[in-house]
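Please check our next protein.
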Amino acid sequence: MAESLRLQLRRVVLESGTLAGRIYNLVIFGTILLSVIGLLVQPHPMRVAAPGEIPLWVEELERACLLVFMADYLLHLWVSPKPLAYARSFFGLIDLSAVLFFFVPQINSGLILWIFKFGRVLRVFKLLRFMDEAQQLGRALKASARRIGVFLFFVVMAQVVLGYLMVAFESNHPDTQFQTAGQGVYWAIVTMTTVGYGDFVPQTVQGQLLAAVVMLLGFGIIAIPTGIVTVESIQQARQDRLRVCSQCGHQEHRRGAVHCDQCGAPLPALPQSPSS
């Protein structure tokens, strides 16, 4: 009896293809959004709220969300085929934090209080469970992490060189704002990312020409990682769809499908993209 109930709840909690599963996910999704609304009216995170400072409806909303999150976490532990693996996973830790950090102790330490309240903010990551695109993007980022890391390493080296050149160009100007190489690197980062605070401005012609070059480089710096992730995302989506059913040979399936959309047979696991 208990095992039958567990299997039924597993289809509701872990699978969104059924009507009950969609309703369950909708309830959790709505609870997350409501809890985020409650966070928007919380007082300053570095101090303890005075009595009556938090509206009563926010406190009641927090309690209701706590009950839903606790039930969701316990259900996941009970119905998961591998409860310990779920508890140690990213979403398991996020689900635990959504429950654990509701219990903020009344302490006077601003730093410790901020840590506990920050843990409560992490519940917004529970929304990722309901987005197939987020999971696909995560796989694409993981597969392209090494290439992006190498690219960013060369970008950092280029910014160090450009910052040092700016300090060298500006060193002889009487009104120069660049006194150290660190200030030059900071300027290169701000300029290349097209932020442009304006706190460091080149005064010489050579410095202004170098600034123009760095600004133009900024467009390419932003576009290259986007292209890498986009290509990997397309490959991930193609691999996700083109899984061949061993029973009927059907290839086109829903994203993240576990069973064949044509005959219902189990599909092979998603292939892992090698990081290169």
Summary: The domain at 132-276 is CATH 1.10.287.70 (Helix Hairpins). DSSP finds ten helices and no strands in the chain.
